[in-house]
Records
---
Amino acid sequence: MNRPASDGAAHFQPETSTAKAILGADVGGTYARLGWALLQPGGDLQVQGFRKYACAEHPSLAAILRDYADWLASNTDAPAISHAVVAIAGVLDGDTLLNTNLAWPVSLAATRAESGIASLELINDFVAVAQAMPHADAEALHLICGEPAHGQRGPALVLGPGTGLGVALYLPGGNPPVLASEAGHAALAATTPLEQDVLRLLARRYPHVDNERVLSGPGLMNLYSCLCELQGSEPHWQTPAALVEAANAQRDAIAVQSVEVFCAWLGSLAGDLALTFGARSVYLTGGITGHLAGPLHAGSFQQRFLAKGALSAALRQVPVWRVEHGELGVLGALAWHLDNLPTP
């Protein structure tokens, strides 16, 4: 690989062979994850050179890309990079990315110029997650419920509770192959009397109570605070990690209840969306699903996923998988480029 120019900008040179080395990045409000892959017709897609950056420790997206490029340049085994795809939360409005959770503003033109990457694309982060699913290893999939044999073909619903709630639909053979969705911002539906009580409290705080007000990391804390208020208790836990740890250790009854209600409510939404989109399989991604692995498999998620009246029997055939893959966003960014290459 060529070394950075004397001005410090990383200049990527195109490949001369049929194989192309592509940089993929997954950028969220807290971390940026980067890797590269060598794309060859008919070859497997494998993330290499994976690195993780804390966004707040760097002044811009371009600075992170440049740092990664410098690191690659110091590795004599790394190939020249011809292109970069960045999966990032938000919507591109002209040259500017619209997002309130990032550590800095993002301009596509400025990022290209400051990083030295002339060929750079920004895509929605959850489009990348959905795009990654056909490329994820079987070992990363953990069955929660349903019949795997029935989920091999047809639309795949992908949900990701994290900082927000990402929702997308993967359409095998579709053009485009991923249907983006803003279902995380659709109105939250309450089913049980307790959920209705929580919804009433949230409606006093927010003019619009959407799904991610509960079904996300910050949403779990909203749910916890509402349950504390309903029971006349002062909130003790301040972060999702502390709350989940207390629940898993059975140290706090309201923390345990918060996690149980969260999983059941997520199951209800997953079932609704599976019916809405005619999904033949469902994949749960996002950092919070890994922390809630035990509760998600305990039964309340499955019970509410299937609680759809006459159509419960149809949903019993839909496999629901929990996905554990630390490089999923990077894999998806690379897969997006691979799957959108023109057919020779």
Note: Residues 1-17 have pLDDT under 50 and may be disordered.
---
Amino acid sequence: MIIGVVGKIAAGKTTVAKFFEEKGFCRVSCSDPLIDLLTHNILDYSWVPELPERAEPTRDKLIEFGKYLKDKYGGDVLIRLAVDKKRNCKDIVIDGVRSREEIEAVKRLGGKVIYVEARPEIRFERLMRRKASKDRTINSFEDFRAMDDAEERLYHTSELKVLADYVIVNDGTLEELRRKVEGIIGDIAGKV
């Protein structure tokens, strides 16, 4: 089984993916292949489209290189790489699915897609708490909105909600989110 998790910055995609990981899924992010290629850490792959010049994987660099790879190798290249990286796993959850082509690739592989959403103010608070290195250029709500708007223009993330098999509103507690995810896992297991 393959699960793709879609949503805007800091909506809770990784947390949802971690809940699947707790249930035995191998977790991989769409950005993992980009980070691996940019840092030349490619031992987990059976194929690599091309190796760029070694670079620090900042959010801007990841977006730029991801766009280049998608333009050159197809909009589903990151899904193909993520699945390849975890090819020895029975069940895979892919965090950070970002486009129609990636959703279609997950579904072509027989997978399901979950869209995670949360209000912008909540997402900004989460982003400030997580202090990820890729987010270090975001220091204010205005910076966050600018990055969020840029990502929306690039990926049209909010339009992807209609393509999802499940939608999770993640404005509540961690325990509420866990219950929602466990409900989806139960539903998926019942259909397999």
Note: The two ends are 9 Å apart (CA to CA).
